Amino acid sequence: MRKIILSVIGVLVIIGSILLAKSLIASKNKPKPVLEKVVKTVFIDTVKNGQIQIEIPGNGSLVAKRRVEIYSEVQGIFKTSNVLFKPGQKYNAGQSLINLDASEYYATVQSAKSNLYNAIAAIMPDLRLDFPEIYQKWQNYLNAFDLSKSAPQLPEMSSEKENYFITGRGIVSSYYNLKNLEQRLAKYTIRAPFTGILTEALVTEGTFIRNGQKLGEFIDPSEYEMEVAISKSFASLLKVGEEVQLTNMDKTNTYIGKISRVNGSIDQATQTITTYIDVKDPNLKEGLYLEANIKGETVEDAIEIDRNLLLEDNQIFILTNGMLNAISVTPVYFSDTKVVLKEVPNGTIILKRPVPGAYVGMLVKPFDASANQ
């Protein structure tokens, strides 16, 4: 009985082995699955060479083209006036900004003026006797002499004798001493050099002002200047008188300025050249930050693309027969986001947007906007 059971088990093992072998042979003959090739969709553009206007970016803050720091050359008490000396106050050209109390110094000037008048009056009898031909000239000078006004210029000397006589009496030295005092007296009143606005006031009425003390700042708000640092590589593109488009940081307002000056030297530390742009607009204020687009030269037969489409070895991807290829190009200008290229044949199909992981020979297909509608 035992032999029969072992014989049956042996037959079953042999049959199972045969079936397993047939199954393995059948599985080897099955065809391998074909992997579907992935074809990426890309955005493309067709090259059309033309004129590209190069724009050089820059930025800076506005500064009044005409500004004056107000200092005192004399000392005295700041007298009150009808117009308060406060920031934002407007003044016309020649209008008094600050009046210092000059009563004591005014008396000194009047004393010197009186001394000059007396010195001339004392020589009049001698002039009548010894120099009758010039007597009337000096008499007319005395008649025009007004102690309440600035001393008139001395009559012109007509002869050497007259010069010696007048100079010997100390009249010429007294006259110039008086004019020196009058010049200093005028400094007790500080006037606006031009029509403008006060932007800084460091003193108030009643303050004792000292010689050399800074009193404030005064600007002309009708014209501003912006200083822009431009890379030295663009120095040849900067032209005095060229119009420049200026925009504020919010891109809400646009202004037109002009290049007024270009520095003749390059900053050794930054390797930039300083350019000055003039701009006029009633809405502008000093200190406003603006961005400038300076027009440079016009490049013929060129295209402009995004900088991230340019490969490291000055190549760009093109589309030929459904796959990517690369061609060499010549970059002529780089901005922050764009690059201007030459030597790209017309009609060449190039990428409009970068493709992650792109390589030469990669299968791609152009994006069809009509298929998604």
UniProtKB/TrEMBL annotation:
Q: Where is the Multidrug resistance protein MdtA-like barrel-sandwich hybrid domain?
A: 66-214
**Pfam families in UniProt:** BSH_RND
List the InterPro entries hit by this protein, alphabetically. Answer: MdtA-like_BSH
Indicate the transmembrane segments per the record. Answer: none
Q: Which domain of life is it from?
A: Bacteria
Q: What is this protein called?
A: HlyD family efflux transporter periplasmic adaptor subunit
